[in-house]
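Section 3.1: Structural characterization of target chains.
Under the original work plan, the team committed to producing a structural model for every single-chain target entering the pipeline before any wet-lab resources were allocated. The record below documents one such target. The sequence was received from the expression subgroup and is listed exactly as submitted; it comprises 425 residues.
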Amino acid sequence: MRKTTALRVAAAATAALLTASACSSRRGQDAQDTAAGGACKGQQTTGITDKTIKLGGIYPLSGPASAYGTISKGVAAYFGHVNDKGGIEGRKVEFVVRDDGYQPPKAVEEARRLVEREKVFAVFQSLGTPSTAAVWDYLNQQKVPQPFVATGASVWGTDDKHPWTIGWQPNYVSEARVYAKYLKDARPHAKVAVLYQNDDFGKDLLGGFKQAVAGSGVKVVAAESYEVTDPSVSAQMTNLARSEADVLLDITTPKFGSQALAADAKNTRWNPLHIVNNVASSTAVLKPVGFKNVQGVVSATYFKDPADPKWADDPEVKTYQEALHKYAPGSDPANQFNAYGWAVASSLHKALDAMKCPTREGLRDAVRNLKDVKVDMLLPGVTLSTGPDDAFPIETMQLMRFKGERWQLFGKPVDSREEFGPVAK
């Protein structure tokens, strides 16, 4: 799938900064960077030694998407746990977290700080499509790995000009396909209203959904967008209710997801099946609305929900809960964003273990050559797989429905690659 306008705008916004500073920053960096010898001769070893690995992460610890900031706590808890056990291949992990407030220009500033001042081995996790789009040109020019970005935009897997960047979670097109298959099977004549964020995140999922239902009896009958700077989505929800659609596809980030769920609950004259996308499905998003008001809401997931009694005796979930209490006291183990952080950090651990060379190039190549790698926090049947023609690590999800005070899985895991084929470039 081609890049959208917002991605081009984000790239343009950083072009002048990169052009003005590229030569000077490169000279300064070269003076302090290090390179491998032997079979890995010439490859970059900045940020990694025999005893340490220094990683950087960029999250919205403040701003309109600050609910995602807690992901960094799940990541830090995982690395703290691993360090206590001796590290990764004997290397202790230092994880440096920076706040961009969900603002692309700030993300660029923080990426430069991590690369040029902190001298990190990789920028592991930049969160959000706009922020990631703003920094990937810079990181690829600097040849710094940007593994497992926290955004499901399909461009991270279809673009062939940024080999140092790759996603992790199911891309938004794949997620949309799972909802489309569900509706085609369960409600073959559904009329769908869509609320979506007006950026690459929202447009990617909406576009994937429209493609997946094309030619079927499932129709999109209304769509309303919002900006991340909007105070609320109440007006959009009022307009969508007028469509009398029997399904609401809710493509939002946490703040607006809560607002949409609350507006839906308040409007008793409109009772659509509410499908909320995965990135706004945390119980932290649903709880402020009141669990009694979100019964029957549907979403999809790919990793274990620590709040689900199904996993009460699961060794990995137990380890996660204990480590979060130890390394991020006060954090809620039931918050799926914390579990997400643990799962993605565990996935990076697998990639680091798979490096043929302990270098930036080694990590770049390892994340693109994963073969059905099992990660214990992922759902059974969900593994990491990439290859020369497939840069999407996870494309399998399972539907879940909110009942009582938690999500309950239903149906079987859906491999969107198997059902729909590869995501188009």
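Residues 1-6, 15-31 have pLDDT under 50 and may be disordered.
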